Amino acid sequence: MQTYYYLLASQHFLTEEEPLDEVFKERYRYYQEQEKEVDFWLVTQPAFLEAPELAEVKAKCPQPAAAVISTNEQFITWLKLRLEFVVTGEFSAPSQSIPDPLASLAVA
C-alpha cells in the first residue's frame, strides 16, 4: 500500500481560478533537471472521495471536486500554503474501500 497526500478543492477553483499550469510546468522542469520521477497528479472527480472514511472530507468540498495527489507530503504542504479554500489530507491505497488513484490516470 502507498500513502498519498492530497489537496482538494472545487474543480472550478483548481482548474480555472488558480494558475496551477504554471506551478506544474515549473515543477516538471525542476524534476527533469534533478532527474526525478514525477510524483504528483491532478485528478478531476477523484474516486477516493467515495470511500466511507472520507465522506466527511467530501462533504466539505464543493462538487465537482478536483485534487492534486502526490506521494510527496512536502509538495502538498507547499501548495496548501500557496492556495486558499483547499482541504488537505492523506489516504493509503489500494485498500478495500479506496482503489489505486493512479490506475486509470494520465499524467497531469
From TrEMBL:
Q: Which InterPro entries match?
A: Ycf54, Ycf54-like_sf
Enumerate the Gene3D superfamilies for this protein.
Answer: Uncharacterised protein family Ycf54
Q: Which Pfam families does the record cross-reference, listed alphabetically?
A: Ycf54
Q: Which family does it belong to?
A: Belongs to the ycf54 family.
Protein name, entry field: Ycf54 protein
What gene does the UniProt entry assign to this protein?
ycf54
